[in-house]
Amino acid sequence: MKIDGRRYRSLWPLADASAVEAIDQTALPHQFVTRRIADLEGAIEAIRTMRVRGAPLIGATAAYGLALALRRSADDSALQAAYRALLASRPTAVNLRHALDDVRSAVAALPVAQRAAAAWARAGAICEEDVALNQRIGDAGLPLIAALHRRLGRRVNILTHCNAGWLATIDWGTATAPIYKAHDSGVPLRVLVDETRPRNQGAALTAFELGQHGVPYAVIVDNAGGHLMQRGEVDLVIVGADRITARGDAANKIGTYLKALAARANGVPFYVAAPYTTFDWTIQDGLTEIEIEERSGEEVTHIAGRLDDGRVARVALTPDGAAALNPAFDVTPAELIDGFITDRGIVAANAKALAEAFGRAPISA
Ligand code: MRU
């Protein structure tokens, strides 16, 4: 994707393979800053502080973090220690575990001296695969948007929550891939971008990347979605996911569930876009089996923005000492999801359809 006309990915290896460079998402949209990640600690810091965020990008960063850790020491205990440290960096997105398992199993049988180079190559392959998966998600979702346009005979209004865009992946995004493909093929559309309090990934990141690509959008406050749906001003909802259970319950950024409820109440189709790396086949009940990250209350009580003089500042929103709760994700039950837009096509949100689409043994419950 492009920033000021120049092609970027969210994360890329340096030409001399000494480190990876990532767009620092905590500085967007007001400053474009990249950060070098040169060791395990740098990777963990970038994930924890959300300089890199979004389920697939967290996985890709962790894969490179593991490769960088193995340069220092690559015996079995060092491999395990780095794996565990990275796994603990953020709990909800299962892509993290998937990428770490992938790298670990690619190197575990190799002689210690070969492990770091093999892990680096595997991390690169994970990034390339992510781009390909998202393009397939785009191809699967494009007909959905095009069909809506044909039926409505006007611009399609698509609501999205948080940032499941190219910044959350290596390129294309998940929820945004069908949107970019539809826009690029001439389908008139507008994206309604939930601001996504408390960290405002929608207002800061989704608005930024859609604007850079020239996709029409409007930022809305998180509370506006239900009202707009009642008035027929939302034709489709597409969101991303951080972890999807075998029966189709989907964890995504806090507030997603409320949008799914409003969509169902108003007959608006609600789709979750995700690659196979976001499915967790080991669990079924999203409400009890997905760990929901609790983040600092300061994300609720304070907010950062650009002042009129151009400086970026952080200000308090609440009375001094206000208590705050900050669950970072919620779970949308499968019953509220009209379908998954995946790299295997559009799949119904139930255990049987998902098992068939992904070639898994069906689960019993
Ligand atoms: O806390 P974040 O910003 O990492 O949360 C991101 C989301 O919830 C995204 O919607 C999800 O990871 C899908 S990204 C393709």
Question: What would a concise description of this structure say?
Answer:
The protein is α/β, with parallel strands linked by helices and 365 residues long. It is 40% helix and 19% strand.
CATH architecture of the largest domain: 3-Layer(aba) Sandwich
CATH topology of the largest domain: Rossmann fold
SSE arrangement, N to C: EEEEEHHHHHEHEHEHEEEHEEHHEEEEEH
Helix percent band? 40-55%
Query: What is the radius of gyration computed over CA atoms, rounded to a whole number of angstroms?
Result: 20 Å
Account of the 3D structure:
The chain has 365 residues and is of the alpha/beta class. The chain is 40% helix and 19% strand. The chain has twelve helices and 18 strands. Strands 8-7-6-9-12-17-18 form a seven-stranded mixed sheet. Helix 2 runs antiparallel to helix 3 (76-87) and helix 3 (76-87) packs antiparallel against helix 4. The longest helix has 41 residues, at 112-152. It starts with a strand and ends in an 8-residue tail after the last helix. The model has no long low-confidence stretch (mean pLDDT 97). The structure holds 5-S-methyl-1-O-phosphono-5-thio-D-ribulose (MRU).
